[in-house]
């Protein structure tokens, strides 16, 4: 059923963004959420406009992060004993999204041109023996943006469900890697933004934006060829994963954490992923979660104050989180190579990481003033105050107590998301919001079978991203 946010007229909000009037944007946004419109949907609808002008891509990633994190606020409202359909607490996410989107929305308005889409290339029009996957893969490796877009519009024109479109894209770029993994992140997060607005007639806007990012047009790292060669060997076929009947053995994914952070070679990293997945019975989702946690180990090795190094290392988490989302979303064999690509990327970050003068490990938290008591609303209030004061140690201590008491972690991450909106997302290319989204999603999606594993690193990274501003 369509939500209020999907049916609300947002012309006044778009006009305010075009005018660049912050007070007007705030006033109109308040009216929309007071009328029951959800922030997640409103941001998604802004995204379809931004897609026409955001050739660089970070604005769309930031909007997707804000849109997805807005969904955590239902839990926050329940925790605080407030109306769960009251969207006013989410307002800062909408305002931040509008501020980030302003240049792209203004550029689209000034262009005053009708966006034209290419003629679809339908599956029935492909040459004999050719499939959408083979055609799309060839176009991507030949840097043929037009054919990539025509094929995506061909799938859309057939009425293919969203999972079919997702797996075709993920499969075609699963063993490519460029620009710190951004093309794949654009795909996953762009599709998340579409989820917020229910795909449908708005999908062409996102597909048109995504298509130019997918083809390989920059130099790839040498380790990508290692992955392609490894998976091309018949002995490394992943096909039998499709017919596996045994329950996943998620604990078999845990050794990858140590392997990735070792002096192993890239072929050994590939073999480790293959063994965990195909020989030892871990699921793709379980491996994806462990890879995301491993990414936080890299971030913990970055000293405080090294913000540039922190953001560089954070791309490992952003990429690993996108991979875990993808393999959870489609659950197809064709997506499995992404696990190898993510593992090798993390290993490359590990080997390239500069020596740090200090580390920021997430251990047992200590704070001179804990506060908050045991009741969830009190702890939430204390956490918000500590984040406002950028007290990382205090916030970590309170958050740690909160989760130990088994309170709803989504409410906690909603508060962290609110704190993330206090920075200038445009200035940092939305990285703070994106890091909080990735860390929060991975924390909340951590496999129950691995509940005895310490995942404080994910929480610490989210808090550090916010308090470093």
Itemize the secondary structure elements and their pairings:
Elements: H1 4-7, H2 11-19, H3 22-34, H4 39-50, H5 58-69, H6 73-79, H7 91-111, H8 132-141, H9 145-157, H10 162-173, H11 182-196, H12 203-210, H13 223-232, H14 255-260, H15 266-279, H16 284-300, H17 307-330, H18 337-352, H19 376-388, H20 392-404, H21 409-420, H22 431-444, H23 456-467
Characterise this structure.
With 469 residues, the protein is an all-alpha fold. It has four domains: 4-111; 123-213, no CATH class; 223-352, no CATH class; 376-467. It has 23 helices and no strands. Helix 2 (11-19) packs across helix 7 (91-111) and helix 4 (39-50) runs antiparallel to helix 5. 50% of the residues are buried. Residues 366-370 have low confidence and may be disordered.
Number of helices: 23
> What separation lies between the terminal Cα atoms?
39 Å
The Cα radius of gyration reads 22 Å
- Average pLDDT score: 93
User: Share of helix among residues?
Assistant: 55-70%
Element order: H for helix, E for strand? HHHHHHHHHHHHHHHHHHHHHHH
Taking the sheet with the most strands, its summary is: none
Oligomeric state? single chain
The shape is globular
| Approximate strand percentage | under 5%
The tally of domains stands at 4
Low-confidence runs (pLDDT<50, min 5 residues)? 366-370
- Estimated structural class: mainly alpha
Number of strands: 0
